[in-house]
Records
---
Amino acid sequence: MVPLNWYLILSTAVFIIGMIGFLTRRNLIIIFMSIELMLNGVNISLVAISHYMQDMRGQIFVFFIIAVAAAEAAIGLAIIMALFRNKPTVYVDEMNEMKG
């Protein structure tokens, strides 16, 4: 059986990779992927702790996080497509105004 701290180390590593991607990259698609990585890091820790505590609340909460992440991805990609129609770039630095 894999100990709990290995799962927590994995979730921390995934979260940190997502955080570094979010803070250092300027491409909107990669920023959204980094947010998904951070959410998945939290999900790994929630499931691991839920399994360790023999409680289902953490696993149920993961389903809500996945639903929010799916909604966030759909809305975010729609916003990116709308911005891309006005200004053909996906870099954050070049999108400094909301009006085309």
---
Amino acid sequence: MRFQLTEEQRALRDGTRKLLDGRFGRDRLRAAVDEPALDRALWRELGAAGFFALRLPEEAGGVGLGLPEAVLVFEEAGRALLPGPLVACELLAGVVDGVAAGERTAGLCEGSAEEVLWEHPADCDELILVEGGGRDARDAPGRAEGVYRSAPDRVAWTPFASVDPLTPLARVTDFPRGAPLGGPDPSRLRREAALLTAAQQVGSAVRTVEAAVGHARERTQFGVPIGSFQAVKHLCAQMLVRAEMARSAVYAAAVTEGALDVTGAKLLADEAAVRNARDCLQVHGGMGFTWEAEVHLHLKRAWLRAARWGVAAEAEEALAADLID
């Protein structure tokens, strides 16, 4: 079995990177921090480019691609630190009207989470709640399982402090459930949400490797680049290894779509994104804490994603249980 990207997949990845470089570059990223509201014009541009309709059939107006291609696109989104309910809109395109074209946005919440958190509450036109379909004990038999929708103005919520300035959060305190939303399967939604989140983590991990290596080449101490010092070389090499291991796991999980494969991929991707951002910050020294370096934004986003759609403790329990079985 070969996992080399095809020419079409490379073109998709390169085209996505070019699109995001042009529409959401460094200056736009900094402006978004000061004004974190969703950029509707950018959202519609992404929709027009097929960003959210990647996996919809062509006869339904989509691009007709698969999960591996969606993973490549989301890796680039993670690399650019693109904000917004990206995972929710990708998964709900074709389910919620207007989402595929970028004309409307939808949020996605885990109903069984200890804190039911809602990303970008002020910018969502629909909110979808996923209950059941997970491996957690709280999803045990007897608990309702399904996918429910609600208009945002019917949902009771309170503000929730977010570590990431580009991802506003709310804690849902009451979600009036109507009839289950037909179509999406809770298990599949959870699995794909975890995988696309992992893909974003991989993109962030790769970007921080590039940032650390770039800084280590330019920054000098004692008359030489700091990258010439053994300790910095080893730090950067470990970052690269983490990023590549996570990328391989995520690509493989996109092909197999196995629940445990996705669980392992998310675990590796979370670790790569968080630890790489920390190491990148160390390479940057004190500069890493300032607004001149974007590494602190990668670290904050990596922390937030690591707490979404499967945390490390749950993943480790699931993988250990599978080994024992």
---
Amino acid sequence: MFKAFLIKYGEIGIKGKNRHLFEDALVHQIKYALKPVEGEFLITKEQGRIYIETLSDYDYEETMESLQRVFGIVGICPVVQVEDEGFEKLTQDVIDYLNKRYPDKKKTFKVNARRARKNYPMTSMELNAALGEKILEAFPEMTVDVHNPDIMLNIEIRKQINIYSEIIPGPGGMPVGTNGKGMLLLSGGIDSPVAGYMIAKRGVKIDAVYFHAPPYTSERAKQKVVDLAKIVARYTGPIHLKVVNFTDIQLYIYEKCPHDELTIIMRRYMMKIAEHFARETGSLGLITGESIGQVASQTMQSLAATNEVCTMPVYRPLIGFDKQEIIEVSEKIGTYETSILPFEDCCTIFVAKHPVTKPNINIIKRSETKLSEKIDEMMKEAIETAETIVVEAE
């Protein structure tokens, strides 16, 4: 029935003179989201609206699922588009629409006409009344309810006339790429994929870095992270994933430093390496999945100790979330089932039984001096041997 979709956006509408830049970014993301969908689509902009016209057969459900992953979209309206050939023809088009869309006519309705084209020969109020009268004549079992109708029949008068009655919610947010780029520290856990999703929702394009520790972590653990990145890429677009072999650094820290400080010191070196890649690839900050108090490395004191090595901002979109809230988002975006696969992560090996929860930065720095002989060379090697995987959504 539907050969076009009208895309509604939210915050973009208040962007003033820069609005076209955000619209262009949204069009780009829609094209990316529809690329794997069977069918041919034409996407156009017109007076504060974005239209998707279907040029061939397509799968409605698959198309809708893909569009509901595009940040910036607040509503997807399946529309019937008709030419303006006078009121009588419009009346027939509206009746045809209601006949096909609502086989059961025992419903209340309201006509909501809007005229973007002000030279239309009737005002919006006149059109509401006239079409409402014609609908009641055609379908006597229908009744008008202007406050809480079963059917809100929208009639938009533009170059063409759009008829629609359903607005399917989009994810909201801002189009990816309109608010810079960040480097996500991605692990195989539940939290970091959700953090990537949350910050991408604000328009941030993401790349990612994963710390691998073979043979203590397996190839399956690495593949799990790649699979998570593929799921996140459905929302964010392609992700350049850096896979860093962290084994030698981790063993060196284990050999030289107090074991209750291992997690904090390890994370400080992870942040340093991630910041290197962030600068190299034009990212403006680091992104982590930490939330206050979740584990020993996420106390206020631990986060401060980790931050101390960074000169660029560290964004933690989940900082105020509890675990259940993170799990709910994870389930919604489709990463949960992959995140709970039982493969070792480098953050979970060599973990002290009683890690320090209130690290003193001076003591941590003193411990790190024990690494001075080799750590710079080891970091250099880890950076130079990192593997880059371009991850696309499946």
